[in-house]
User: Which sequence fits this backbone?
């Protein structure tokens, strides 16, 4: 429980005691942060408040941050290709969730956990949008009819392609 309270305090920006944290406390914090998917925030807090994590912990936090940055860089690269294809097809589209929030809210693309790309298109463009994604090599795990899907769902089944992140049309 002490680690949980310390993690909450650190993430909330509360000042630490002048002596800082020991290695064991940092190890517990990082493990707890990873468990609750807060590790990226823990990566950002020490940098923003000049809190020095011990060498091994600092390296672990840097590895978490760089891994997320690399993943999200690939995701945004793929998003760019999809948006260009939609633009060429004349389909207005708006990124949702992570891609939209990463810079505007989080201030750093690496800090937003993202597992897929969520896109909003007009209902009348869904069928065409699915065709564009299929032309880019994306497909669902099962055959589906976009018109039939719209009758009972606000989004299409997740679509993916080898080596790329999944896409969900809303």
Assistant:
């Amino acid at each position: 429980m002490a680690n949980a309270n310390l993690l909450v305090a650190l993430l909330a920006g509360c000042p630490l005691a002048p002596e800082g944290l020991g290695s064991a406390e940092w190890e517990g914090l990082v493990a707890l942060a990873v468990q609750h998917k807060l590790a990226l925030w823990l990566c950002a807090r020490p940098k923003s408040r000049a809190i020095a994590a011990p060498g091994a912990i600092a390296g672990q936090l840097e590895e978490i941050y760089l891994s997320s940055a690399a993943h999200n860089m690939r995701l945004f690269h793929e998003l760019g290709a999809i948006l260009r294809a939609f633009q060429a097809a004349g389909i207005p589209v708006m990124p949702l969730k992570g891609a939209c929030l990463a810079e505007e809210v989080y201030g750093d693309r690496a800090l937003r956990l993202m597992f897929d790309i969520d896109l909003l298109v007009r209902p009348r463009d869904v069928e065409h949008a699915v065709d564009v994604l299929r032309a880019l090599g994306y497909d669902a795990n099962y055959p589906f009819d976009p018109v039939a899907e719209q009758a009972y769902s606000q989004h299409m089944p997740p679509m993916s392609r080898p080596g790329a992140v999944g896409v969900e049309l809303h």
About this structure: Residues 2-53 form one domain. The two ends are 40 Å apart (CA to CA).
